[in-house]
Amino acid sequence: MACVEDNWINGVIAGGDSVWDSGGWAVKTGITSEGNGYSNTMNEVRALPEVAVSDLLAYYDAVRDAAFGVIDRMSDDDVSTEFSRGERTITWGWILGHVIVEESQHLGQVALIRGIIRGLNG
Amino acid sequence: MPSFRDPIKSGLNEYYGKLKESVSGLTPEELMWQPGPESNHILWTVWHMARVADRWANSTVLGNDELWTRNGWAAKLDMPEDRYGRGETPDQVRDFPPVDIGLVLEYYDAAHTSVLAMIDALEQSDLDRDVFAEYRDESLNIGWILGHILAEEAQHLGQIAYIRGIQRGFNG
Hints:
The complex is a heterodimer. Chain A is mainly alpha-helical. Chain A has a single domain (about 1-120), classed as Four Helix Bundle (Hemerythrin (Met), subunit A), CATH 1.20.120. In chain A, about 60% of the residues lie in helices and about 5% in strands. Chain A is built from six helices and two strands, in the order H-H-H-H-H-E-E-H. Chain A has a two-stranded antiparallel sheet. The mean pLDDT of chain A is about 95. Helix content of chain B is about 60%, strand content about 5%. In chain B, strands 1-2 form a two-stranded antiparallel sheet. Chain B has one domain: dinb family like domain (Four Helix Bundle (Hemerythrin (Met), subunit A), Up-down Bundle), CATH 1.20.120. By secondary structure, chain B is mainly alpha-helical. In chain B, helix 1 runs antiparallel to helix 7, helix 3 packs parallel to helix 7 (about 100-120) and helix 3 (about 40-60) runs antiparallel to helix 8.
């Protein structure tokens, strides 16, 4: 989730390095695989090293700080800026809506998994 | 055109399209299967998501009656007019009536269309306005509500996809 936000907002919209790269988070977390997890196989998911959740949340906090800075600097016109992804042309406005929708889907999954483990309100 | 409309509408259409894919082809048993004794099932979740869309757009923001009552959807589904889903117990979820998913999705189509219409009716200045959400007993900012609709609905969508995946496997 954190990588997704990092790549879309700090990478695509801001056009800069991801916080993952500029902050040296591969070394800090021990996660050395390339990419952000998209289309990972089950073996790749299982092969993720044990990482402290607090380290991942620290990365996510850094991503969020940077992302909010990028969004605050966007003008109204910027939502129409286009970006090519393969054969598709998308806008920065699409990216903003998409980040909320993609991340929230994963958030719902996290809450469901927690609930299966701990029960309602666990 | 106010710059908030495109991002919000594209997010709404993105999640709603995925929702329809996520329930496509599921049997009544799969729709009501619960991964845990206190878990929601897919049918309850889809119904609740439609109720959420309807209430935010028609009642909370626009101050009208919900489509649920105004357009007779509660009656068509033979469900109570005051039923919404928020705060329901595991017993209520488990005892949810086995309503036809097609009918729930028809209601959802109407609710989704009304959410898009609501966005088109809002101007930039409306985002700073507060409305009172009676059922939550709190005043909420309309700009906050727009982001929240995406966040709340997409969380439930993720849960539906996950519950489907547990039953049918990856890409099932």
